[in-house]
UniProtKB/TrEMBL annotation:
This is Cell elongation-specific peptidoglycan D,D-transpeptidase. GO terms for cellular component: plasma membrane. InterPro entries: Beta-lactam/transpept, Beta-lactam/transpept-like, PBPA_dimer, PCN-bd_Tpept. Residues 156-485 form the Penicillin-binding protein transpeptidase domain. The lineage of its organism: Bacteria, Bacillati, Actinomycetota, Actinomycetes, Micrococcales. One of its GO terms (molecular function) is penicillin binding. Gene3D superfamilies: DD-peptidase/beta-lactamase superfamily, Penicillin-binding protein 2a (Domain 2). Residues 52-135 form the Penicillin binding protein A dimerisation domain. It comes from the Bacteria. It comes from Kytococcus aerolatus.
Length: 490
């Protein structure tokens, strides 16, 4: 064999080898990931041809499959509507599954999950198309409905947790969308709806309770600053702290004032107890306290409460963040939940849940049980503890201080008759040029036997500088009260 022929044979051998390796890689190594791609039309056609499991709350469907006419036997519908859209997500012939449990639990809902293999065997032997598993969520129907109604279409989000288990009792994000518009056989209508939703500047597809760039928490972060002071051992709730009318930030000409340019004390003095500073949400006291504690202490305490932690509920949660290496003026602002502090409503609810459960929150979760087509339990969630945030003693002191906020401080609008409520308000600036603010409230009830922890944020309630603004106490606290009432009265 001459040299050109040998060279050609080697080239052909290498090409064949490369083809075999590529085919093996695609068919074996990448097979599962390719199958799970949300835009895999073959998988979507296969899944639309079988009955997808329901997403349930108290046994009632938020998402279900109904018999359909035409080429596909099943149509996905969403009885829960826009109020539960960020819980369910969508299941679309064109755009796949996503936006909520439809995306994260698609393998279970479609019946393809490996955990369902032995339950699929009888269907395979009998030639039946296997049905998907159903998911019973942890949602409390009254709390979910109350959150949707109380937010009343305003931009923002509300999250409620059971601090005893970490179960998510309510999760609402506004603005929302109707998932039914993204399903069905009219592909032109589906495409038009998808284009419209993605072009909307209000971002209705964004789950504000879990995702996004995060909100400045404002004064609800003072709970972290107060916790850091109590944990350091130099402060007690009755420790006197400086609370001047104005506070010049260190190494700066900028003067910090309290909300509405108010005094923190009734008698005109420049000191008050730490508990009173939290009760009236005194900016100057907490800014000074933050500088005294230092950025490292604040950062460590924020981390202990879950800032920076990756969470899945099972939808992924954007990690909250405390700024790295802030200088003294930045530390003062960070202690107030401003500067570059960013968080999600879920994280703020976890902050209250940790205090409610004597310093140790439970991992948040949205899936309670997985059920087969006969609604028999396949699996159920086992509650798990998170890292301890603060000591039992510090948590109890914070609880009592938060009770004072609701009983005689900025959080009076969260009070529930006959129930002791613990809470904290926040009014967070998010636009330095215009002084626009978000309204916050977080808390739990009953304070002595917590059944629900909640966080509410309502976006863009006014301007800080001009006083044309709502506050956490006037806007967010009533929403939180409505949610808590539904749980504690059950």
């Amino acid at each position: 064999m001459n040299r050109p022929v040998r060279s050609l044979a080697w080239v052909i051998t290498l090409l064949l080898g490369s083809l075999l390796v590529a085919a093996t890689w695609i068919q074996v190594v990448q097979a599962e990931s390719l199958r799970e791609r949300p835009d895999n039309r073959r998988t979507m056609l296969e899944e639309f041809g079988r009955q997808r499991g329901d997403i349930l709350v108290d046994g009632e469907p938020l998402a279900t499959s109904v018999p359909a006419e035409g080429d596909l036997p099943w149509l996905r519908t969403y009885p829960g509507g826009p109020g539960s859209a960020h819980v369910t997500g969508y299941f679309s012939m064109i755009y796949g599954s996503g936006g909520g449990l439809e995306g994260t639990e698609s393998a279970l809902l479609s019946g393809r999950d490996d955990s369902l293999f032995y339950r699929r065997l009888p269907d395979l032997f009998m030639g039946r198309e296997p049905a998907g598993a159903s998911i019973e969520t942890t949602l409390h129907p009254g709390a979910q409905a109350a959150a949707e109604k109380a937010l009343d279409g305003r931009r923002g989000a509300a999250v409620a947790l059971d601090p005893r288990t970490g179960a998510i009792l309510a999760m609402v994000s506004n603005p929302s969308y109707d998932p039914t518009r993204l399903t069905g056989n009219d592909l032109t209508a589906v495409q038009e709806a998808w284009t419209e939703l993605n072009a909307d500047p209000s971002q209705p597809l964004l789950n504000r309770a879990l995702r996004g760039n995060g909100y400045p928490p404002g004064s609800v972060f003072k709970l972290v600053t107060a916790a850091a002071a109590l944990e350091a051992g130099d402060h007690q709730p009755d420790t006197e702290v400086a609370a001047p009318h104005t506070y010049r930030l260190p190494n700066s000409s900028r003067e910090l004032r309290n909300f509405g340019n108010k005094e923190c004390t009734d008698d005109g003095s420049d000191t008050q107890s730490l508990a009173d500073a939290l009760r009236v949400s005194c900016n100057t006291a907490f800014a000074r306290l933050g500088v005294e504690l230092g950025a490292e202490q604040l950062s460590e305490t924020a981390s202990a409460f879950g800032f920076g932690q990756e969470l899945s509920v099972p939808m992924s949660v954007t990690p909250s963040r405390f700024p790295q290496d802030p200088d003294d003026p930045q530390t003062a602002l960070s202690a107030l939940g401003q500067f570059e502090v960013r968080t999600t409503p879920l994280q703020v609810a976890l902050l209250s849940a940790a205090i409610a459960r004597e310093g140790q929150a439970m991992e948040p979760h949205l899936v309670d049980q997985v059920l087969d087509e006969d609604l028999d339990v396949i699996s159920e969630h086992n509650p798990r503890e998170m890292e301890r945030a603060v000591s039992h003693e510090t948590a109890r002191e914070l609880r009592d201080m938060m009770v004072g906020v609701v009983e005689s401080g900025t959080g009076r609008a969260a009070a529930i008759e006959g129930v002791q409520v613990a809470g904290k308000t926040g009014t967070a600036e998010y636009d330095d040029a215009d002084g626009r603010v978000h309204a916050w409230f977080t808390g739990f009830a009953p304070a002595d036997d917590p059944q629900v922890a909640v966080a509410v944020v309502v976006e863009g309630v006014g301007r800080f500088a001009t006083g044309e603004t709502g506050t956490g106490g006037s806007v967010a606290a009533p929403v939180a009260r409505s949610i808590m009432e539904e749980v504690v009265s059950r």
